[in-house]
Amino acid sequence: MTAADTSVRPTAAANWRALGTSVRLVTTDPALLDSCNLLLARQVAEVDAACSRFRDDSELVALDRADGRPVKVSPLLAEALAVALRAAAATDGAVDPTVGSAMNAIGYDRDFRLVQAEGRPVKLTVRPVPGWRLIRLDRGTGTVTVPAGVRLDLGVTAKALGGGQGRGDARAGGGLRSPGEPRR
After folding, report:
1. Which of 61, 81, 138, 147 is the most buried (most CB within 10 A)?
2. 3-class secondary structure for the chain?
3. 105: CB partners within 8 A, 6+ apart
4. What is the pLDDT of residues 115-162, one digit of tens each?
5. What pTM does this model have?
């Protein structure tokens, strides 16, 4: 019987803000921190360009403006929507990507830091959401159809996707952690 390896592996970490939340990258090879940081930052920026509901130039905003017409989307947005729809199905709609209008109605219509900075009271407006089953994703043609007036919010699942592309070594919004790392 051999004793368990109790040696501590060296680590290096980088922290920054992206996608309206904090990002933490940890690597067990400190020499790779800079290149891993650049790679993850690029991947997170690509997710932001595809999935942000706060950027007029994002693919998601263009999809929201399509008024019910099918739209050809990038493979990244298609994957982000597939992840969001799987999360909706797995949670029986508790995680629903069609909450965009509801989020806007309560004042979350821009980056959360801007909402916090303004400090105005949040006006709670309860309204039903259209429901994730209305979204049509055709992976074969790379098209998505969102009914007119429906606004999407891929926040939580897009953050997980952005961090997940970092192979689990990234934490985006607290949603992902390295294997064996405790919840915080």
Report:
1. 81
2. CCCCCCCCCCCEEEEEEECCEEEEEEECCHHHHHHHHHHHHHHHHHHHHHHCCCCCCCHHHHHHCCCCCCEECCHHHHHHHHHHHHHHHHCCCCCCCCCHHHHHHCCCCCCHHHHHHHCCCCCCCCCCCCCHHHCEEECCCCEEECCCCCCCCCHHHHHHHHHHCCCCCEEECCCCCCCCCCCC
3. 125, 127
4. 555 666 666 677 777 889 999 999 999 999 999 989 898 877 877 776
5. 0.70
